[in-house]
Amino acid sequence: ETGVTQSPTHLIKTRGQQVTLRCSSQSGHNTVSWYQQALGQGPQFIFQYYREEENGRGNFPPRFSGLQFPNYSSELNVNALELDDSALYLCASSLLAGASQETQYFGPGTRLLVL
Amino acid sequence: TQLLEQSPQFLSIQEGENLTVYCNSSSVFSSLQWYRQEPGEGPVLLVTVVTGGEVKKLKRLTFQFGDARKDSSLHITAAQPGDTGLYLCAGTTSGTYKYIFGTGTRLKVLA
Fold this sequence. Notes:
The complex is a heterodimer.
Chain A: E1 5-7, E2 10-13, E3 19-24, E4 31-37, E5 44-50, E6 53-57, E7 64-68, E8 73-78, E9 87-94, E10 105-106, E11 110-114
Parallel strand pairs in A: 2-11
Antiparallel strand pairs in A: 1-3, 3-8, 4-5, 4-9, 5-6, 7-8, 9-10, 9-11
Chain B: E1 5-7, E2 10-14, E3 19-24, E4 31-37, E5 44-49, E6 55-58, E7 61-65, E8 71-76, E9 85-92, E10 100-101, E11 105-110
Parallel strand pairs in B: 2-11
Antiparallel strand pairs in B: 1-3, 3-8, 4-5, 4-9, 6-7, 7-8, 9-10, 9-11
């Protein structure tokens, strides 16, 4: 039990639709990172938020966007869904941003299927 | 582009056997982490190594960071069915926000 929760657990959407995934971080954790994990692969970094500002981004297009709120919750929004967006989406919270020994606490993920 | 390759990709062994999982890169990392992920859950951190040549032990698991900080290994002694899962390595560079995850090794330990 990491104290990080995500909702919903599963979601089915059709191509072209928009989706919002939610994450509730551990209390006191100012940093949240989002990852996409395709079936059989390791997680791929999407972006990180620190104190409600985007702190860095991986190789994902602008239709992937996020928000972080003062109450340690955050959202991942994906517009114009494509079939390849089908994956497990993980959020991870940590206390500090950019600290190489920092422990990330992962949520259980949201499994998104795009038809 | 930083990449982390893990080998083997899949491993199925009998309870009591030993195994080693490798994580290799052409890039230098300031730290490397190992995670285990079980179905329906997010990855759980097992260990962080930061010094070249560092060895850390966690019960039956031994982790080593390569001298040049480009590779790492995870050795499990006397594997048990509870060790079954996806093992992931992840590297990061000092001062950056980004963890690069490896391709994963799926381990199954048969009773």
